[in-house]
Amino acid sequence: MLPGNHTGTGRVALTQAGLAPVAALIAWVLGGIGAGQAVLYGVLVALAVSAVLVWRERQSIQHPEWDQHRLLKLFIRTGVERLVLLAGLLFVGLAVLELAPLPLLTGLVLAQFAWLAAMIGHNDKKVR
């Protein structure tokens, strides 16, 4: 069992990691190598942002002695870190690497659907 996959965010990160090569291959077949690279980059951006959340979640789990105020500060800091990371990576992808914007954002949005897929799959297991 991989570390972190026992939590919802860990399942999402694993789903996003599995989605990356599939989405890139489909985009490459449908739109060419440039589209494949942009979609892959978009999915990896979402994975990086999710990885920050998994890291901070695991950090909070390892410290049950932390009070609500410290956890609230960590929650707010995590949100800011994720936003800054997202903006920075999108800037790099669009301005520095000059990837196609539509495929890049499509990959990012597809990876966000991993949140939905992971939660639906988890809820299905609870019902059975």
How does this structure look, described?
The model has no long low-confidence stretch (mean pLDDT 87). It contains four helices and no strands. The protein is flat, with a radius of gyration of 16 Å. It has 128 residues and is mainly alpha-helical. It has one domain. The two termini are 22 Å apart. α2 packs antiparallel against α3 and α2 packs across α4.
Spell out the key features of this protein:
128 residues, mainly alpha
* Topology as a string of helices (H) and strands (E): HHHH
Summarize the main sheet: none
Query: What is the number of domains?
Result: 1
C-alpha Rg, in Å?
16 Å
N/C terminus separation: 22 Å
Individual helix count: 4
What overall geometry do the principal axes of the alpha carbons give?
A: flat
Structural class: mainly alpha
Strand fraction band?
Answer: under 5%
Mean pLDDT value? 87
State the helicity in percent bands: over 70%
How many DSSP E strands?
Answer: 0
Stretches where pLDDT is under 50 for at least 5 consecutive residues are: none
Briefly, what is this?
The protein is mainly alpha-helical and 128 residues long. The chain has helices at 8-31, 33-61, 68-96, 101-127.
List the helices and strands and how they pair.
Elements (H helix, E strand, L loop, with lengths): L7 H24 L1 H29 L6 H29 L4 H27 L1
